[in-house]
Each structure stands twice: as structure tokens, then as C-alpha cells.
Amino acid sequence: MRRLSDPSVTTTGETAGAQCPYCDGTNTDREHPKGPSLCRSMHYCHDCEEPFEKFG
Predict the structure, then answer these.
(1) Which of 6, 20, 23, 35 has the most CB atoms around its CB within 10 Å?
(2) Cβ-count burial of 34 within 10 angstroms (0-12 exposed, 13-18 middle, 19+ buried)?
(3) Mean pLDDT, the chain, as a whole number?
(4) 44 Cβ neighbours under 8 A, 6+ residues apart
(5) Domain assignments of the chain as residue spans, ordered by start
(6) What is the pLDDT of residues 21-42, one digit of tens each?
């Protein structure tokens, strides 16, 4: 049986730090590849200790 991929969990594989919208720092980690919709991912800033969403 051939298994089809689920587009709701497919990611770009990008792991580079996103720029924090609160402090403009880039010392961030992607906590989850997908947020509430397919165009958003969840990140955490280690500089100001705030979670944020990246659109893209």
C-alpha cells in the first residue's frame, strides 16, 4: 500500500533562526513547524524569552 504525504504536516525544512518581532534578535528556535495555519510557524526568542509566530 502506497502512503500519501499529509500536506498539513509538510514543512520547508528551514531551521534558521527567525527574527523576533519584539526585540529584533535572531537567537530563536522554531518550536513547532506549523502554527494554527499552514503559513505560520511557532518560534521562541531566547533573548527576550517571548514566543511568536512567523508568517511565510
Answers:
(1) 20
(2) middle
(3) 76
(4) 28, 29, 31, 50, 51, 52
(5) 18-56
(6) 999 999 999 887 666 677 788 8
**Dist. CA 46–CA 56, nearest whole Å:** 21
Rounded CA separation 10/21 (Å): 25
Nearest partner of 53 among 42, 44, 45, judged by Cα: 42
CB 21 within 8 Å of CB 52 = yes
